[in-house]
Specification:
This protein folds into 3 domains: about 100 residues, no CATH class; about 260 residues, Rossmann fold (3-Layer(aba) Sandwich); about 140 residues, no CATH class. The protein starts with about 45 loop residues before the first helix and ends in a 30-residue tail after the last strand. The protein has 20 helices and 22 strands.
Length: about 675
């Protein structure tokens, strides 16, 4: 090579000198001797290679395609490999990929990542979680849009410039898909995914998801992402009718509901109508009451369940007669469909089936989250926005005050003999249900103001708090089903008076956790071995408070000779009873209707045995005792059962049952028992 020959380092601004070598350098060979010159081709500069790549021809693509991404960038993407002359033509250069998209206009939409799972809305709008981006999985995501996938990621046979048919570059496709999901950020389906049913956006506007379309204030939209919430496509549920129909579907429903034999015939049909509307809109509500229909056999509970199913349509409600909590949550999924459970009777004492379902209904009332374990130790969870409806002959006794306070109970009497059953044709009631759903959607803008009006009206009749929310939500929904206009003060006053009377019985039954604790305590057997009689804590409390209803056996004790019980006898009996109660940490102060019961804070062994296996065990009773109306904290510790402890004094007037006996007369004196029957006197 001559001195003016081009070297591979000529493109450098400051080329390094050639390295030194042992012996005589080749370029200083002795003169006169011809060096053999190999047939070398000139070295191509890297800059020239870049110019050649930039000027390389672009493979033509079909024009006029609906998903054509438009103008393409002149520069290849950074991960675009240079062409290999030995492996056929280079793939076509793609345009700039929008951030968070596989390509511009791609029918598959990335949502984000969570651990090793990438989430997408597939070509049909369904939510899909993908761990491995294998070719078959990618094909399922694109479905009937495979031609677009093949066009965007073509493959070429060796030596060919034509893309291969029915093949795509899975490596490039998966790289773009994973990158797009990563650009979208972290994604958690819980709370972010909304299935079929009613929902509201951040501004309180209704979004009704029918599975294949979203009914919004701006019109119908395809399933997708709205304001950070994902509405995937699902198999369709019964959609609302295009119009509200002729007549008033709610009036027709009231007429049919009146044919059942209700315990409150002037109230219960209206409440059942309101329940039906609550079920239709439950995902959009801030509070969802639970409803329980109870009655003996032949009262029409199952027929009512069928009527409810016709109203909502076959896929518009989750319905079962033998459900479990996990079965219900799997059926609900991410939807806000209502749930109807028939024949949820009290189970065995050791069974938790009905209790778990009731707890799920409690969680759903406020849209809370349920949690459960899973085989992979990661757990499963989800939010529940369903309104629950139950029916049974008996209501399980496992319900606590927190469950009863979310419940509206409707009692059904047996249908009188000879009375015809209500006419129920599925097609007719499907149409009326669709018409009612349309009216509720159209009238939704009035909901917030309507609900507040009813809350105020019921509060004026002492129906407030959580129980007030139950009745206000239900009657406001019934009102919106019947009337487009807001209710008048006269209409609200009339119904508020009716509902206050109807709710009073339920309020008395609801009680509170503190009242449940007291009832558990006074009902526990205590010192049962006394002349063969079975006594409980309540009997000893009556004796310690000198109440006339105290058992004669405890007042007279071993000195019972059939004599008259006077004040002195009662005072002595009260002293003995307090000594007995002190062994378990209890003490009574005062007498008559002014008596008070001391309940300690410390876990005294005797008291711990009385609360054993209850929710107030291990000292939890002290928390409930402080919530009893009229309870007074004790500043100075009392010494009971050998321990000094603080606690609270609970008035007897706050303990249901203790003062319900005659207080204005002494207990009648029992006649002497016949000879030979002393042990049974």
């Amino acid at each position: 090579m001559t001195d003016d020959a081009q070297t591979a380092d000529d493109w450098l601004s400051n080329p390094s000198p050639p390295p030194r070598a042992l012996g005589t350098p080749a370029h200083q060979a002795p003169k006169g001797k011809a060096r053999p010159r190999p047939d070398l081709k000139p070295v191509t500069r890297l800059a020239d290679i870049a110019h050649q790549l930039q000027d390389a021809p672009v493979a033509a693509e079909p024009e006029g395609q609906p998903d054509d991404p438009g103008p393409r960038s002149a520069d290849p993407e950074p991960d675009q490999a240079p062409p290999d002359p030995g492996k056929g033509a280079a793939p076509p250069r793609r345009g700039a990929r929008p951030k968070g998209e596989i390509w511009e206009g791609c029918p598959v939409k990335p949502l984000g990542v969570n651990g090793e799972v990438s989430y997408y809305l597939d070509r049909h709008g369904q939510l899909r979680g993908i761990k491995k981006h294998e070719n078959q999985t990618i094909l399922h995501l694109f479905g009937d849009k495979l031609d677009l996938l093949i066009r965007k990621y073509p493959t070429y046979a060796k030596g060919s410039t034509e893309p291969q048919k029915h093949r795509f570059d899975g490596t490039r496709a998966s790289m773009d898909m994973i990158r797009a999901c990563s650009e979208k950020g972290l994604f958690n389906p819980d709370g972010a995914v909304r299935g079929v049913g009613a929902w509201v956006d951040d501004e309180g506007r209704l979004i009704y998801h029918t599975g294949q379309a979203l009914i919004t204030a701006e019109g119908s939209k395809d399933p997708g992402e709205i304001d950070g919430k994902v509405y995937p496509a699902y198999p369709p549920i019964p959609a609302p009718s295009l119009t509200g129909g002729t007549g008033c579907p709610a009036t027709d429903m009231l007429g049919t509901l009146s044919t059942w034999s209700w315990a409150r015939p002037d109230v219960d049909p209206m409440i059942t109508l309101g329940m039906t509307a609550v079920q239709m809109m439950c995902g959009a509500l801030t509070w969802r009451p639970a409803y329980w229909f109870t009655g003996d056999k032949a009262s029409g509970k199952s027929a009512l369940q069928d009527w409810i199913r016709f109203i909502h349509g076959e896929r518009g409600i989750v319905r079962s007669t033998d459900a479990t909590k996990s079965g219900i949550t799997s059926q609900i999924g991410h939807s806000s469909l209502p749930v109807a459970i028939d024949e949820l009777e009290p189970g065995d004492e050791g069974s938790s089936k009905e209790r778990d379902i009731i707890v799920l209904a409690r969680v759903a009332s406020s849209g809370g989250q349920w949690l459960r374990g899973s085989a992979d130790q990661k757990g499963a969870s989800g939010n529940v926005y369903s309104a629950f409806m139950f029916s049974s002959i008996l209501i399980p006794g496992s319900m606590g005050a927190q469950d009863r306070s979310r419940l509206i109970t409707l009692n059904m009497n047996p249908i009188p003999p000879g009375q015809a059953k209500p006419v129920m044709t599925a097609r007719t009631w499907n149409a009326r249900g669709a018409a009612l759903k349309r009216r509720l959607i159209d009238r939704w803008p009035s909901w917030a103001e309507r609900l507040e009006l009813w809350r105020v009206a019921l509060a004026e009749h002492n129906l407030a708090g959580r129980n007030g929310d139950n009745w206000a939500t239900t009657i406001a929904m019934a009102d919106m089903a019947l009337n487009a206009e807001l209710p008048t003060p006269e209409f609200m006053a009339q119904w508020a008076l009716k509902l206050s009377f109807a709710a009073q019985t339920e309020t008395d039954e609801i009680g509170s956790n503190a009242e449940d604790m007291l009832q558990h305590l006074i009902g526990q057997p205590f010192d049962v071995f006394r002349r063969g009689e079975l006594f409980n804590v309540a009997h000893w409390l009556m004796t310690a408070a000198s109440l006339p209803a105290a058992p004669r056996e405890l007042v007279l004790g071993a000195n019972d000779t059939g004599g008259v019980i006077d004040e002195h006898v009662r005072a002595e009996a009260a002293k003995r009873a307090n000594e007995k109660l002190a062994k378990v940490g209890l003490r009574v102060k005062g007498d008559g209707d002014g008596a008070e019961l001391f309940i300690p804070n410390k876990p005294i062994p005797g008291l711990m045995r009385l609360f054993e296996h209850s929710q107030w065990a291990r000292g939890v009773w002290a928390q409930a005792a402080r919530r009893v109306p009229g309870a007074q904290l004790v500043a100075n510790p009392l010494r009971l059962a050998g321990q000094a402890t603080r606690g609270v004094y609970v008035p007897f007037r706050s303990i249901s049952g203790l003062l319900s006996f005659p207080m204005d007369r002494a207990a009648p004196v029992a006649p002497p028992a016949p000879d030979g029957f002393e042990d049974f006197a």
